[in-house]
Amino acid sequence: MAKGSVRKKGKKWYYRFYVEDASGKMVQKEYAGTESKSETEKLLRKALEDYEDKKFVAKADNLTVGELLDMWAEEELKTGTLSNGTVENYLSAIRCTKKHPIADRKLKTVTAEHLQAFLDLLTFGGEFPDGKVRKGYSKDYIHSFSAVLQQSFRFAVFPKQLISFNPMQYIKLKKQAEEVDLFSDDEVEEGTQPISHEDYKRLIKYLEKKIRGLRQQIRQLNGQMEFISYVQQNGMLPVPTEENTVEKTYMDHIAVLRKMKQDQKREDKEK
Hints:
Blueprint: E1 4-9, E2 12-20, E3 26-32, H1 37-62, H2 65-77, H3 84-97, H4 112-124, E4 126-127, E5 133-134, H5 139-157, H6 197-233, H7 246-270
Antiparallel strand pairs: 1-2, 2-3, 4-5
């Protein structure tokens, strides 16, 4: 609170105190009182109270969201009973918020629509003020932003009395679409570890090997089916049945071919 003093010049008493000018410098102002020292001291006290009230109103009118966040962090967050991890998490959310244009908005001009748009951007991602396109943050981190804004605006309503109501009471946190990320550390169930990059490469190599084997089996099966179709059309072998399967029919034909080759070689030798 500003301090002042009184002094007598001639028959009159004067009171004076320091005030902050537009540039932020402290300058002394002096005003005429009465011939009574006690009455002049009352005038001084009234002037100081009026000055403090006007200064408070002016400060509230010019206070930005970013300045409110800093004020709340210093007066409540850092002096409260939250764990060090939670405090650091909230401070990180404050630093991130101050990079967004909403931090430069005057506190008294911020609406629920402004806050909802800001949290939606953090939730779903999109083009940020720096021109970069980013994905949405994790659910837990979004809750940190929401808690910081909720508590700081509550702080602005009471005890600071900077605004008359908390616009965060109208905000709804929306849900992200479910996405699976093999390498994400977010929302991992207890006892479950995310796959490492080395394990991922080994998994891909294994699957590629299995796929090559399956392709080879498919090609072999296709060849067998083409062969069975051919030998059936030419009356060389019977139609496969439950007892006479495709594979057995195919192997029987291989045996026939081998016997035919052996007979041909024998005939050639006899000639």
